Amino acid sequence: MKKEKKDTNFFENFASAVTKWTGSTAAFLIAFFVVIIWGITGPIFHYSETWQLVINTGTTIITFLMVFLIQKSQNKDSMAIQLKLNELVASHEYASNRLIDVEDLSEKELLVLHNYYLELSKMCQKEDSLLMTHSIDEAKDNHTIKRHSRKKLAKLADDIEEGKEEI
Q1: Distance in angstroms (rounded) separating the CA atoms of residues 151 and 115
Q2: Which secondary-structure segment (H or E) carries 136?
Q3: Is 1 helix (H, G, I), strand (E, B) or coil?
Q4: pLDDT of 35-67, one tens digit each?
Q5: Buried b (16+ CB within 10 A) or exposed e, 33-72
Q6: What region, left, alpha or beta, does residue 8 occupy, with left being phi > 0 and alpha being psi -120 to 50 degrees?
Q7: How confident is the model at residue 89 (pLDDT cuts 50, 70, 90)?
Q8: What Cα–Cα distance (Å) separates residue 60 from each residue in 31, 35, 52, 56?
Q9: Do 51 and 41 form a contact (C-beta atoms < 8 A)?
Q10: How far, in Å, CA of 128 to CA of 107, rounded?
Q11: Domain boundaries of the chain, sorted by first residue
């Protein structure tokens, strides 16, 4: 599969790069040594209000800006994860398509779904063994079903491409 050229803007690239860098060991060490140097200079500046204001102002500004940069990166990562999960749900023959874009549901609707899966979990816990719900035979059966479904989808795609079938 050919990857398309990424169309990202400057801020997105900047936010991603800064977020990655600030999570690095080098960034931590720099911040650590800045605090150490600030602490060492305390006696030189007689622990004045200005000396305290320097670290307070610096950390406040950095924290304020980092909140937005990190949130930008988290939003992008979260969307990518949701899209991957949506693809998994949409591609599985037995999965409920109601779970696609589940993150857009209300809390009340999410609670209904949560209770449904909680009940499924309770039913599975009643099984005698983990092997009863996760066996090699079950995995083979699932693989056969998926392979058969993929062949049907491939044939349908071919038929659509040849004009034999409409979408």
Answers
A1: 35
A2: helix 136-162
A3: coil
A4: 999 999 999 999 999 999 999 999 999 999 999
A5: eeeeebeeeeeeeeeeeebeeeeeeeeeeeeeeeeebeeb
A6: beta
A7: confident
A8: 13, 14, 12, 6
A9: yes
A10: 34
A11: 10-95, 127-162
Taking Cα atoms as reference points, which of 59, 61, 56, 69 lies closest to residue 22? 69
pLDDT confidence of residue 167:
58
Three-state secondary structure along 54-94?
HHHHHHHHHHHHHHHHHHHHHHHHHHHHHHHHHHHHHHCCC
- What SS3 class is residue 139? helix
Type of residue found at 50? T
State the pLDDT at residue 129: 62
Alpha carbon distance 143, 149 (integer Å):
10
pLDDT at 12: 85
Q: Give the distance from CA 156 to its chain's centroid.
A: 32
| Separation CA 34–CA 150 (nearest Å) | 57
Grade residue 153 by pLDDT with cuts at 50, 70 and 90: confident
Biggest CA-to-CA distance, the chain: 85
Q: Look at the chain and count its residues.
A: 167
- What average pLDDT does this structure show over 9-25? 89
The answer to whether 53 and 59 have CB atoms below 8 angstroms apart is no
- The whole-number average pLDDT for the span 87-109 is 85
